[in-house]
């Protein structure tokens, strides 16, 4: 079973994406989508060494809502900073210690950091214990680290990793 | 009514996309410039896509969901490219307004040294 269907979640996602691409719910398209969703993970199995497991689907939805709100707020923050006096900006690099272990969770976190207020993830240390983040305007380093750890890392840890 | 709503969305989108690009011109170093295009544009393109979905759904009597895919791919790729750009900039040690972090990666330092030697 594990070898025939290595990534059930990925299969469903790919089928969903296929249906969106063809923009129809014709039964034939659903079968074709599932077929593609089954074959692509089989062919690209080397890219997916670990199985993707979502432990709390509801929390994932909740987390996505929080992120969407943060993205909208981030846009206003960044717009204000850009339109203000660029000379007043205090950009800084901040190192954030990571507790996440799985690759998917770390890349998820890096993506979220880049999409939310005034921060871009810049570099992951070789041993995956620190994520370097560039902040556009930084008042308080500790505050930024706590926000990222509690607002984004903690839910991700609960969603993707067994606690 | 719907027309007004769609126009408002398109205008918002255009304004945010413009501000994002303006950031490229106004901000002063490479690292801060990355912020403009990665963020201000997500909302910009986002609202343009919502406008497009609404327009085609109501004018062609079929739900148009291609835009969902565009949004999905945009949200996946924009941060990744920003990350790679930033990483490359750090590797080249481009000048920054912020204090550059010390190189944590031991593996990169010797390589850079050797490439410099070859140039000399």
UniProtKB/TrEMBL annotation, chain B:
<keyword id="KW-0812">Transmembrane</keyword>
<dbReference type="GO" id="GO:0015385">
    <property type="term" value="F:sodium:proton antiporter activity"/>
</dbReference>
<dbReference type="InterPro" id="IPR005133">
    <property type="entry name" value="PhaG_MnhG_YufB"/>
</dbReference>
<feature type="transmembrane region" description="Helical">
    <location>
        <begin position="6"/>
        <end position="28"/>
    </location>
</feature>
<feature type="compositionally biased region" description="Polar residues">
    <location>
        <begin position="102"/>
        <end position="113"/>
    </location>
</feature>
<feature type="region of interest" description="Disordered">
    <location>
        <begin position="101"/>
        <end position="120"/>
    </location>
</feature>
<dbReference type="Pfam" id="PF03334">
    <property type="entry name" value="PhaG_MnhG_YufB"/>
</dbReference>
<feature type="transmembrane region" description="Helical">
    <location>
        <begin position="40"/>
        <end position="58"/>
    </location>
</feature>
<keyword id="KW-1133">Transmembrane helix</keyword>
<feature type="transmembrane region" description="Helical">
    <location>
        <begin position="70"/>
        <end position="90"/>
    </location>
</feature>
<keyword id="KW-0472">Membrane</keyword>
<protein>
    <submittedName>
        <fullName>Multisubunit potassium/proton antiporter, PhaG subunit</fullName>
    </submittedName>
</protein>
């Amino acid at each position: 079973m594990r070898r025939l269907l290595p990534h059930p979640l990925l299969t469903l996602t790919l089928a969903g994406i296929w249906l969106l691409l063809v923009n129809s719910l014709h039964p034939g398209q659903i079968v074709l989508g599932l077929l593609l969703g089954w074959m692509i993970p089989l062919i690209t199995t080397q890219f997916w060494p670990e199985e993707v497991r979502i432990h709390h689907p509801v929390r994932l939805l909740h987390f996505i809502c929080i992120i969407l709100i943060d993205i909208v707020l981030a846009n206003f923050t960044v717009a204000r900073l850009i339109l203000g006096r660029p000379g007043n900006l205090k950009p800084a690099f901040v190192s954030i210690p990571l507790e996440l272990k799985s690759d998917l969770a770390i890349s998820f976190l890096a993506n979220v950091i880049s999409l939310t207020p005034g921060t871009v993830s810049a570099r992951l240390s070789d041993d995956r214990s620190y994520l370097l983040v560039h902040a556009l305007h930084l008042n308080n380093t500790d505050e930024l680290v706590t926000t990222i750890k509690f607002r984004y890392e903690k839910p991700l840890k609960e969603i993707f990793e067994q606690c | 009514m719907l027309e007004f709503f769609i126009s408002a969305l398109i205008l918002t989108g255009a304004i945010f996309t413009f501000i994002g690009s303006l950031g490229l011109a106004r901000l002063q170093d490479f690292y801060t410039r990355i912020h403009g295009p990665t963020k201000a544009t997500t909302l910009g393109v986002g609202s343009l896509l919502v406008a497009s979905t609404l327009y085609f759904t109501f004018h062609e009597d079929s739900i148009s969901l291609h835009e969902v895919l565009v949004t999905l791919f945009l949200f996946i790729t924009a941060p990744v490219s920003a990350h790679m750009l930033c990483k490359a900039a750090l590797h080249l040690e481009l000048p920054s307004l912020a204090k550059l972090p010390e190189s944590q990666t031991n593996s990169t330092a010797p390589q850079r040294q050797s490439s410099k030697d070859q140039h000399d």
